[in-house]
Amino acid sequence: MSGAGAQPRNAAGPVLLLLAPAVIIYAAFFLWPTVQMLLRSAYVDGTLSLGNYRELLSTPLYGKVIWTTLRFSVITTAVCLVLGYPLAMLLARASGLTRFLLLLAVTTPYWLDYIVRTYSWMVMLGRNGIVNQALVALGLVQVPTSHLSSDFAVLVGMVQVMLPLMVLCLYAGMARIDPALLDAAAAHGASAFAAFRTVFLPLSMPGVIAGSLLTFVNTLGFYITPALLGGPQQTMISQSIDTLASKLLDWPLASALAVVLLVVTVGLLALFNRFFGFERLAGAEP
Amino acid sequence: MSRGEQQVLWISSSLVLGYLLFPVLVVVTISFSASKFLTFPPPGLSLQWYRELASGEWLRAYWITFQVGTLAALLSSAVGVPAAFALARHTFRLKAAFESLLMAALILPPIIKAISLYLFFVPLGLVNTVTGLVLAHTVTGIPYVVLNLLASLKTYDPDLELAARIHGASPLRAVTTVTLPVLAPSLIVGAVFAFLQSAQELLVAMFLLGTVEKPLAVKLWEGVRISLQPTIAAASTTLVLLALLAFAVTTLAARRRSPGRGVPMMIKARRET
């Protein structure tokens, strides 16, 4: 902690007092339930066993679900990065009212409920949706069909949901870059592209890595978007856990699958923490 | 940057912004539709779906959501403020561990929280209670409060507080009358985030409360899955308004925090719920 005038002190008493409420809440309603879930996944009929994990591995369905989740997360992250980068650049360059309006345009969908945004895609991609109307009007298709229950539909929805997060991460990183550096590159004869490639792009990498990691970690847990826009072929891990727990009442197997998701997520978080530390999550002010 | 490159940047960004905003436009338009079929653009305009929102069941959903969100935001603030002070002003062993815990609470997929808390709550009798859902949403709300406050505490000059102490204020009084008012804008932003994540969260709400009382997210979810009536669009539009209101509140708060900037500082870790 190296803030202006903030002097870290060593005093066990006050720290304990200040942290106690949070620690109690986390111990009781977060850590302990998670530990119980871990234990539940490691027992079969009351004895310690890896049976649940063997079942996950040996059932092709779960392998496919895990694969689908990873695939969608990778594609979503990559597309968000490609679409978000120019927009973030524009935001970083803009000032005053332009920047405010651009931020409003990026953050309004960001604040909006996932169900609401996904619902909109259901309407647009459905049989009588605007996408079909456009395709028919253009003469590209004769008979309108539903575009739902496809990889395409799920990815369109997931990218739209995650794009604002990516843009804000990239923007936070880019806003730190001193524009004088680009002028300096130009003054030394670099073309605009060379200046971008050798100066701007490398300096924007922390934002790229932070945005990509956060987007990826978030997409791993997706439930609403694949459930509404996809079909059985697009099932992701969260949906499977829900089905196992609330429909099939197979809590041990649901717990085991949740542990798989937990391990991957926590692993990536640890990576994030190593690179950036906790406070970068706050979208540190540019 | 040349004019041509500037144009390319603007054109590509406009297309991306269109992709981001068009779905919002569609929902808002459909909510005023005269047809009960989901056609866009709608054949005529009407307020019928808003009238339906005024029916008991939807009002109940709004009330539950408001209740849970407000309580979770208040509890998150009450717990998060001292924790932020501890992180900003003290070094202690396990500091990194505590930060990791907050980060995990923020980003862990909701389904994991939902199934682990559900079984934990059953024997405690907390399933299907507002208390249970408030506690669950507080776990996720605390990091929003802490992260926002930390950003301010880093730039806050503790000498102000010291000055109050020298003039005879007790430590608690110095914090509550000098420090907290300065930090208030950040606290508001954090609390608004905590409220919003609670209001929009689906899976935990479904497992912990959704079978008895239906918060807005659960009601929307069922609506989207079963009936697909424009009532959902009307409810969604009220949420668009809520989002804009939250944007306005946090923008104003951020403006007070760092005058002249007025850019809302976002927590970048809103996860899919």
Condensed summary:
The complex is a heterodimer of chains A (286) and B (273). Chain A is an all-alpha fold and 286 residues long.
Give your account of this protein's structure.
The complex is a heterodimer of chains A (286) and B (273). With 286 residues, chain A is mainly alpha-helical. Chain A has 13 helices and two strands; from the N terminus they run αββαααααααααααα. A two-stranded antiparallel sheet of chain A has the order 1-2. In chain A, helix 1 packs across helix 13 (251-276). Chain A is globular and about 70 Å long. The relative contact order of chain A is 0.12. Residues 1-7 of chain A have low confidence and may be disordered. The radius of gyration of chain B is 22 Å and the shape is globular. By secondary structure, chain B is mainly alpha-helical. Helices cover 75% and strands 0% of the residues of chain B. The chains are: A mainly alpha (286), B mainly alpha (273). At the A-B interface, helix 1, helix 3, helix 4, helix 5 and helix 7 of A face helix 1, helix 3, helix 4, helix 5 and helix 6 of B.
Largest binding interface between chains: A-B, 114 and 111 residues
Rounded to the nearest angstrom, the radius of gyration of chain A is 23 Å
Shape of chain B: globular
The low-confidence runs of chain B, each spanning 5 or more residues with pLDDT under 50, are: 259-273
Following the backbone from N to C, one meets helices and strands of chain B in this order, namely HHHHHHHHHHH
Strand content of chain A: under 5%
Assembly context of the chains: heterodimer
Please state the average pLDDT score of chain B: 85
Largest sheet of chain B: none
Termini separation of chain B comes to 40 Å
The major sheet of chain A is characterized as: 2 strands, antiparallel
Order of helices and strands of chain A: HEEHHHHHHHHHHHH
Mean pLDDT of chain A: 86
Number of strands of chain B: 0
Strands of chain A, count: 2
Coarse shape of chain A = globular
What is the percent of helical residues of chain B? over 70%
Distance between the termini of chain A: 18 Å
